[in-house]
Specification:
The complex is a heterodimer of chains A (about 300) and B (about 180). Chain A is an alpha+beta fold and about 300 residues long. Chain A contains three helices and twelve strands, in the order αααββββββββββββ. In chain A, strands 1-2-5-4-3-12 form a six-stranded antiparallel β-barrel. In chain A, strands 6-7-8-11-10-9 form a six-stranded antiparallel β-barrel. In chain A, strand 10 and strand 11 form a beta hairpin. Chain B is built from eight helices and no strands. Chain B is mainly α and about 180 residues long. In chain B, about 55% of the residues are buried. The chains are: A alpha+beta (about 300), B mainly alpha (about 180).
Chain lengths: ~300, ~180
């Protein structure tokens, strides 16, 4: 009996502690006194995550490439096994190639925008139950990363750095509802901002344009406008493409749905912009506009056959 | 508190958290992420009772609140998992009656943890919490947790009884 009373006192105590922590952290906002504890936890657990990610990587790769190895008593089973093994090698080869491609794209974007970047890999992802869209990178303050730096990949804007540990950092993705990014329509001075909507079927960002007269149309492309002092967002990073526009021109604000260039479900190699470009890259980072689809023309080539009139 | 079970709990919590953020969440299964940490808290509460359960729940929750890439108010998971640990520990007598009861406990814990965590966020005007986001997660959260519990809970119980058998549990067991 005494034991259950003690348990209940302990329960009440820990619940009150939790509520107090929540209140302190909520009131503190971005300057919460608990941020120190957060970075301490990152210092402690960051290395654990790096090791776990290194172990988990082949496991998750194997989930894709796995095919049970048969018992192989006869020739058919042996050949079957060999076949599977060769297919697996082919697949991992393709995987390596796609990683090389990712790095290539990232360097191309960084080069086009004159951003100095620190490349990093995503090692951990927040559980869906936390309702926030964040990932952890395997680079931290020792690699020159500071809070509020822009994160991009070979396709475009990924997000911004939120908290930094010595060897890891946490990125708030652009699709998080707390993310608000100043953007500019390609080849114009029209500005607005996008707000994350989580990952949904069609277009993960909502765009609000400041000018109600805007002539935004589906297919228009967006780049970051650049924040004051280039933090948290440097200018010129491709963000996405307008999918649908709502509200007629002339209304108070115009809103649109934007499909981001970055695939947020399979983030791997990213770059953290440690030095903003000296001059505004304008639209130079956007991939070249797809050429107008040429009308297919049928070309018939007639080749004279020399044998036609010959004797042989 | 005896140190053997505390060490076991700490080890299991660290492993569960690491697997959850580096592997399970990365798989991006439709809907929720299988909540390995919740299952470890549940299993330890079933093994060692409500007092230990709420302690483990608080510790595991605090870790989940702090470990990167967590980005919400510290204390939210701590509150949720403290309650889950206590209630699961209190229900452990019932779970021995049939094989069906633990499944109900896991399902209820899965659903209520999502709802309580989201509810706390809604109180603080967290823009991430919308009714649609919650209902998208709820069915898969319960499903994944129940399926995964079939492997995790018996495993943790077996290890727990080997590391340090709970005297009370074995006195009350009616096998």
């Amino acid at each position: 009996m005494n034991d259950t009373r003690r348990t209940r006192v302990l329960l009440a105590l820990l619940l009150v502690t939790s509520v107090s922590l929540i209140t302190i952290d909520y009131r503190g906002g971005d300057d919460s006194p608990l941020n120190g504890v957060r970075s301490f936890a990152a210092t402690l657990f960051g290395p654990v995550e790096r090791v776990a990610a290194a172990i988990a990587k082949p496991v998750s790769d194997a989930v894709e490439g796995v095919s049970g190895l048969g018992d192989g008593r006869d020739e058919a089973a042996r050949l079957d096994r060999q076949n599977k093994e060769l297919r697996r090698r082919l697949r991992t080869g393709a995987l390596d190639r796609s990683r090389g491609q990712e790095l290539d794209d990232l360097l191309k974007v960084a080069g086009a925008g004159q951003y100095r970047i620190v490349p990093a890999r995503v090692i951990a992802v927040g559980a869906a139950q936390t309702f926030s869209w964040t990932v952890t990178l395997d680079a931290g303050s020792r690699d020159g990363i500071r809070p509020d730096m822009t994160v991009l990949d070979g396709d475009g804007l990924v997000g911004r750095v939120k908290t930094v540990g010595p060897t890891t950092s946490t990125v708030l993705l652009a699709v998080d509802p707390e993310s608000s990014v100043g953007v500019r329509l390609e080849a114009s001075l029209e500005v607005g901002f996008t707000t994350g909507q989580g990952i949904r079927d069609q277009g993960d960002l909502d765009l609000r344009l400041l000018d109600g007269q805007s002539t935004v149309a589906p297919g228009d492309r967006l780049v970051t406008f650049g924040s004051q002092g280039d933090t948290p967002y440097v200018p010129g990073v491709p963000v996405g493409r307008v999918v649908t526009v709502s509200g007629s021109p002339g209304s108070q604000t115009r809103t649109a749905v934007v499909s981001p260039y970055v695939d947020f479900t399979s983030l791997d190699l990213v770059g953290v912009v440690v030095e903003p470009p000296r001059k505004e890259p304008r639209d130079s980072v956007l991939p070249p506009k797809p050429a107008a689809t040429p009308t297919p023309t049928v070309t018939v080539t007639v080749t004279a056959t020399p044998q036609a009139s010959g004797s042989g | 508190m005896p140190p053997a079970r505390v060490l076991l709990a700490a080890l299991l919590v660290v492993v569960a958290l690491a697997v959850q953020v580096t592997l399970l969440a990365r798989l991006r299964l439709p809907g929720a992420t299988p909540d390995l940490l919740l299952l470890v808290v549940l299993a330890l509460a079933l093994a060692y009772g409500p007092a230990f359960g709420l302690g483990v729940g608080f510790g595991a929750g605090l870790a989940a609140d702090l470990v990167p890439p967590a980005d919400h108010e510290v204390g939210r998971w701590a509150l949720v998992l403290t309650l889950v640990g206590y209630l699961a520990g209190a229900a452990r007598g019932e779970t021995r009656r049939s094989a069906f009861v633990p499944l109900v406990v896991v399902g209820a814990a899965g659903a209520s943890s999502v709802l309580l965590f989201a509810g706390l966020g809604a109180l603080m005007d967290d823009p991430n919490i919308t009714w649609g986001a919650v209902t998208d997660l709820l069915p898969t959260a319960v499903l994944y947790d129940v399926v995964l519990s079939a492997f995790v809970v018996p495993g943790v119980l077996a290890v727990a009884s080997r590391v340090e058998p709970d005297t009370e549990a074995f006195a009350g067991a009616t096998r």
